[in-house]
Design brief:
about 65% helix; mainly alpha; about 80 residues
């Protein structure tokens, strides 16, 4: 995906968000802002869950050869 924003636009956006984080009453459209921030937050949580799940799966693969049942749910290989 190409960058849709210039550096100046990005800097202005971050500046506005920083000001609003300190003083939300300065928002011109609080409902829209809340909706957008909520959407970003949910996406960040989903992305973090996926990263965590991948890390756990890699640990299981490295420890137990990908067989969760041999780890007895502890993440430590029972056979090794």
């Amino acid at each position: 995906m190409s960058n849709e924003f210039s550096q100046a636009e990005w800097d202005a956006c971050i500046k506005v968000l920083q000001v609003l984080s300190r003083d939300p009453d300065k928002s011109l459209d609080t409902l829209t802002l809340k909706g957008l921030v909520t959407k970003l937050y949910k996406r960040a949580k989903k992305d973090q869950r996926e990263v965590t799940t991948q890390a756990i799966q890699q640990q299981i693969n490295a420890t137990c050869g990908g067989r969760w049942d041999t780890c007895e749910g502890s993440g430590v290989c029972a056979s090794g």
